[in-house]
Amino acid sequence: MDIGLIINNLVHPPVLFFFLGMIASFCKSDLKIPDPLPKLFSLYLLLAIGFHGGVELRKTGINQEVIFSLSAGILMAIIVPIYTFFILKIKLDTYNAAAIAATYGSISAVTFITAVTFLQTLGLEPGGYMVAALALMESPAIVIGIILARLFAPNNKEGNGFSWSTVMKEAFLNGSVLLISGSLLIGLASGEEGWDTLKPFTKDIFKGMLSFFLLDMGLLAAKRIGDLKSAGFFLPPFAILVPVLNACIAIFIAKLIHLQPENALMFSVLCSSASYIAVPAAMRLSLPEANPSLFVPMALAITFPFNIIVGIPLYYYLILRTDQWIPLFWK
Fold first, then answer.
1. CB-based contacts of 220: which residues, under 8 Å, 6+ apart?
2. How far is it, in rounded angstroms, from Cα 246 to Cα 104?
């Protein structure tokens, strides 16, 4: 793999701010982002991503590539939590296995944004419809995770608190899902004219807001990484190996449906990332028996740094060389 791709990704300012946050926390600095602001940064990023994706989707239109990509994304968001649940059940109880499976079946918008900036430094731009894939892949994992927990919960009996209306409400009316989906539709409706109107807000300050958000993520990741000590040796390797496996499956699918390399990278990044915003919020409400000190640090302190340092350049390297390892399915 080209080491230059990793170095280029590492010296990107938002990524460096992530590590600044980790260093500050390890050094016990008093650096802190005031509590209401991280939530504002999250909302801003979701709005800007969704809106931009809607505008780009309007340019692209709905074609076979878009339909195949969105269908493949939804399929992966359903399959990943199911197969990871049964792996996790070997070592964990049902509730924690379901929560972690949902975390790895869902996506990370910030990893997605980092991949976009990685491509932009190479002079490439992914299709806008990949934002639609991001929005569509967030909810299915939440639903699957909750269903698995209810089906395999010990002493599962009617009336134990399971409610389809609660599950569906949490999956589709979750704030982050609603905001990015709504922003996508607004961008789709307003098109280029709407983009020009909001451009100073949704584009010009985007990387600055992303840098602040990643600074806070670095502070949080460093604080949570110690929580994994109680889980033993099983979970840290899982947090690296499963995303790589999911990325390889995604690259294979991308090849089958003939995605361009830049869109194949975004698809593989979506499939290999893990949620640390929407899913933890949903699990806290729907599966209070699950322990957030397991699935949050796994996604935030291991999978996220791995993907932005090694994963994104690695997946791109594999995509560019798929002719060599799956030549049978190219063309």
1. 21, 300
2. 9
